[in-house]
């Protein structure tokens, strides 16, 4: 049995957007992240995948629900323990330009976590910075330079070095490659995979590039308008997507092979509805080609349809509802 | 087929404080009537500058066009006056930009922005233009066209805005549509809608399309011919099938290998990135610009710019490996040329 590093139960994150309206960015989501795996999170813009990632990492205060880290409830921890957990959870951000302070030299950027947690000082701190730079494929002399002297790919490496500085166990990578060129993306992905092995990390990898998510992830969760629609191992998900949304999403990926003879593409009609006023029942029903009466009335249950393959769709709960 | 657009030896530099950036060097290509040509390349490869020069949109200064001709239906666009160029732009040739939010006027109703083109170029009356504009909105698949006509860009979603942009570009049924990363800012499901739309329009009104993208998947699914650009130059050009099945340039190999293959399952394959970064275009290398990152670089690659070797009809590659005199190259080409043969690069 795989060991659970994180257990997320009924997590909710709502934002007030004025005039008494709320956006349910993350609405009642439960899943586990096993130790040593890469959990991929996909979804279109506005699906709440980044909010979920940042809430898990503690950058957003959750509205409701529980997050267990090593079987301990994060919100019931004492301060001392919380500091340790905060050190063990780190984030790599999407924008390599906006996430590095332009007035700090790279060495100090990387060492910010070291300083905050008082891990090393003096010569040891310096050595640690050099070691980290080498680990992410940069050179020690880069420590004295400023972020603007680096290319996008190199900056992302700096962001990764900063996350690694405090010996984390769990890293939330929030769209770490979407701002990079194709040939550079592969460099960063390979680096992340190497570090996972050598440092014994667990990743929550958020991206909208489904090909890359499939490549790097062991399991994938698909989000739509704040809800988790489907969760399965990446092979199962791509081989046999169960939720109509996942099916459409996967069929929309352009494949770099002109002779590719795959199934007809499912082109979804319309746009995702506004998250302020989402549809009743299943949130995907307004664009779903298989929408039934029940879909507007009841929120579909999160159900394990096959071993380790979860889906929230009325198509797979027909028997229980009594509809054929 | 007849030639619609012919670009010959185009060279564009930019004057900056740090010196002159050689953004586009010696670029020649053509577009036939009614075909979809994709230009692929990374940021800074000169793909956008090339098409903006074709459209006459490049600001001079800082840009300096130091060589080349742009022939559109046989006329050299470079020699036209601003007034003459305005007649071509928008009616015979039009453009869709990457960011649909900033390329629409936020203070003008969507419908008026479409009708404006028709009033200016086709001399239609306001009422006629309105009618035609509503037709265009319907054509690009926006529901409730009449209602949408009177709405502002902020009331549209990203995909809808891109459709509105396309309807502006297509209002005068142009011969050539230039789409600069039209789907990069969109989600995959919306991207699929927009690409379907563009293919559909090509068959309906026989518009030729230049599609700029960095996504090889988009290329494979939409284009007929491909131009691969790197560091301001064309590295390889061929039909879509040849680019994916018989590429002859190491940069093309690199691009194909650095994207994960979603069609094969299980066994995790390692991605093969192109190591290093693109060259500095202030002083580009005298030899092949890709040589510093190329696994197969020979001495000649560093010292001398390779010519365009003709592989097949309509398939050229700017790489010395294709020279019959380069030793051992045949084997490499044979192994790598079959496209996505990953095992080739592991030995």
Identify the notable features of this structure and list them briefly.
heterodimer; A: 324 residues; alpha/beta; Rossmann fold; 8-stranded mixed sheet; 4-stranded antiparallel sheet; globular; B: 347 residues; 2 domains; 34% helix; disordered C terminus
Care to describe what's here?
Chain B: GO terms for molecular function: ATP binding. Chain B: Belongs to the ABC transporter superfamily. Chain B: It is a peripheral membrane protein. Chain B: It is found in: Cell membrane. The complex is a heterodimer of chains A (324) and B (347). Chain A has one domain (4-241): P-loop containing nucleotide triphosphate hydrolases (Rossmann fold), CATH 3.40.50. The two termini of chain A are 36 Å apart. With 324 residues, chain A is of the alpha/beta class. The mean pLDDT of chain A is 87. Chain A contains eleven helices and twelve strands. Chain B is of the alpha/beta class and 347 residues long. Helix content of chain B is 34%, strand content 23%. Chain B is built from 13 helices and twelve strands. Chain B has helices spanning 47-55, 82-88, 110-122, 126-139, 145-149, 158-170, 188-205, 216-222, 240-245, 250-257, 299-303, 329-336, 342-346; strands at residues 3-16, 19-32, 36-40, 63-72, 75-76, 93-96, 176-180, 208-213, 225-230, 233-239, 309-312, 315-317. In chain B, helix 3 (110-122) crosses helix 4 (126-139). The N and C termini of chain B lie far apart (44 Å). The model of chain B is unreliable at 339-347 (pLDDT under 50). Chains A and B meet through helix 6, helix 7, helix 8 and helix 9 of A and helix 6, helix 7, helix 8, helix 9 and helix 10 of B.
């Amino acid at each position: 049995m795989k060991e659970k590093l994180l257990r997320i139960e009924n997590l909710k994150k709502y934002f007030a957007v004025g005039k008494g309206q709320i956006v349910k960015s993350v609405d009642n989501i439960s899943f586990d992240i096993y130790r040593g795996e890469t959990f991929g999170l996909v979804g279109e813009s506005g699906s709440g995948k980044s909010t979920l990632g940042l809430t898990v990492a503690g950058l957003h205060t959750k509205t409701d629900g529980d997050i267990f880290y090593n079987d301990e409830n994060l919100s019931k921890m004492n301060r001392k323990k919380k500091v340790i957990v905060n050190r063990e959870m780190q984030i790599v951000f999407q924008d390599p330009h906006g996430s590095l302070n332009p007035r700090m030299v790279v060495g100090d950027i990387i060492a910010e976590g070291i300083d905050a947690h008082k891990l090393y000082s003096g010569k040891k701190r310096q050595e640690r910075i050099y070691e980290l730079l080498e680990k992410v494929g940069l050179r020690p002399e880069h420590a004295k330079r400023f972020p603007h002297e680096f290319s996008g790919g190199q900056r992302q490496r700096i962001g990764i070095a900063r996350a690694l500085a405090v010996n984390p166990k769990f890293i939330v990578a929030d769209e770490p490659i979407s701002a990079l060129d194709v040939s550079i993306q592969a460099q960063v992905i390979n680096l992340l995979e190497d570090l996972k092995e050598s440092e014994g990390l667990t990743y929550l990898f958020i991206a909208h590039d489904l090909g890359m998510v499939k490549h790097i992830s062991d399991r994938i969760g698909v989000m739509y308008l704040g809800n988790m629609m489907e969760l399965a191992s990446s092979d199962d998900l791509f081989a046999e997507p169960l939720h109509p949304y996942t099916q459409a999403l996967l069929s929309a990926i352009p494949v770099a092979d002109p002779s590719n003879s795959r199934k007809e593409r499912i082109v979804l009609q319309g746009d995702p509805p506004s998250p302020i006023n989402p549809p009743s029942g299943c949130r995907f029903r307004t664009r779903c080609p298989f929408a039934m009466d029940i879909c507007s009335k009841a929120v579909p249950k999160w159900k394990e349809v096959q071993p380790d393959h979860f889906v929230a769709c009325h198509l797979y709960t027909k028997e229980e509802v009594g509809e054929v | 087929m007849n030639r619609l657009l012919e670009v010959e030896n185009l060279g564009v530099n930019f004057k900056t404080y740090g010196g002159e950036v050689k953004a586009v060097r010696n670029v020649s290509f053509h577009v036939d009537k009614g075909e979809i040509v994709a230009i692929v390349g990374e940021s800074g490869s000169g793909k956008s500058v090339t098409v903006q020069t074709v459209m006459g949109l490049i600001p001079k200064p800082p840009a300096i066009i130091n060589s080349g001709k742009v022939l559109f239906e046989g006329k050299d666009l470079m020699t036209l006056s601003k007034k003459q160029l305005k007649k071509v732009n928008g009616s015979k040739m039009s453009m869709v930009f990457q960011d649909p939010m900033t390329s629409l006027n936020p203070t003008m109703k969507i419908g008026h922005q479409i009708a404006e083109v028709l009033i200016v170029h086709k001399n239609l009356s306001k009422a006629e233009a309105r009618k035609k504009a509503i037709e265009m909105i319907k054509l690009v698949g926006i529901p409730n066209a009449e209602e949408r006509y009177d709405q502002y860009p902020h009331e549209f979603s990203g995909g809808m805005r891109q459709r509105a942009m396309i309807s502006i570009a297509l209002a005068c049924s142009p011969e050539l549509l230039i789409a600069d990363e039209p789907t990069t800012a969109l989600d995959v499901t919306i991207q699929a809608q927009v690409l379907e739309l563009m293919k559909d329009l090509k068959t309906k009104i026989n518009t030729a399309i230049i599609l700029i993208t960095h996504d090889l998947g988009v290329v494979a699914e939409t284009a007929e011919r491909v131009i691969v650009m790197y560091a301001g130059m064309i590295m390889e050009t061929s039909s879509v099938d040849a680019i994916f099945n018989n590429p002859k340039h190491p940069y093309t190999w690199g691009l194909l290998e650095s994207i994960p293959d979603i069609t094969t399952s299980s066994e995790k394959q390692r991605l093969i990135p192109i190591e290093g970064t693109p060259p500095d275009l202030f002083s580009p290398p005298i030899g092949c610009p890709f040589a510093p990152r190329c696994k197969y670089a020979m001495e000649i690659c560093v010292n001398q710019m390779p010519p365009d070797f003709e592989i097949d009809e309509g398939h050229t590659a700017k790489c010395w490996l294709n020279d019959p005199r380069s030793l051992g190259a045949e084997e490499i080409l044979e192994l790598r040329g079959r496209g996505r043969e990953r095992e080739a690069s592991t030995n």
